[in-house]
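Example record

The entry below shows one chain as it appears in the dataset: sequence first, then structure tokens.
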Amino acid sequence: MPSKLIIKSHHPWRYRVKLVSLGSALVLLAWGVFEFGFSRAGYDNDNLHAQRELLREQIDMEKQRARDLRAQLAVLERASQVDRQAYDTVEKSLKQAQDEMLELKQEVAFYRGIVSPTEAASGLNITSLKLTSIGEARAYRFKLVLTQLKSNVRLIKGYARMEFEGVKDGAQMHLSLKKVSGGALDKLKLRFKYFQNNEGEIVLPEGFLPSRVLVEVVPSGKDATRLKKTFDWSDVSS
């Protein structure tokens, strides 16, 4: 049987070219995938950066709005404070005006009694006594008014004494003016023809319940007569 001869051509460089081509294609494909991913990631980063900047702008706007609102609130609070102070000032002024009007009415009645001696007893008089609380505990301001009503007036000299009667710890007690004024006042010096106002401040002891105030006027002179008058605490205090 005759033998067959098979002839194969051998081209090793073609195989190598194919390998190189395949490798190049794989490299290009990988590079393309990398570039696509990188560009996509860059797009997402730009988008996130834009959103972050927008959020920052919104936060800055909200912060500025909060500062503006705080400033407006401070202005409104200041205006409200000013209004309250103005209201308090007006209220105090009104109360002061009312008190002054009441005092003026009392003064008018007092002077009317002086110019109309027929309405009051002639001679030396303990006309009125008033004690007004001055806000502190047991503290009062007193006003003692003395008058002289007669046609032939003379200068009154001498002094007046005040004594406060009450109860403390169940016992009767008499307190001198010197005692309740802390030594600041003792005898009230007198020197007048028609009238004299005597004023001062006192502080009653703690636990002392006043009931009456005793006033004694001691004019100087041989023919002078002492004058005494008792006032109920409830009638003269306020």
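Notes for this example: The chain has two domains: 19-115, 121-236. The two ends are 158 Å apart (CA to CA).
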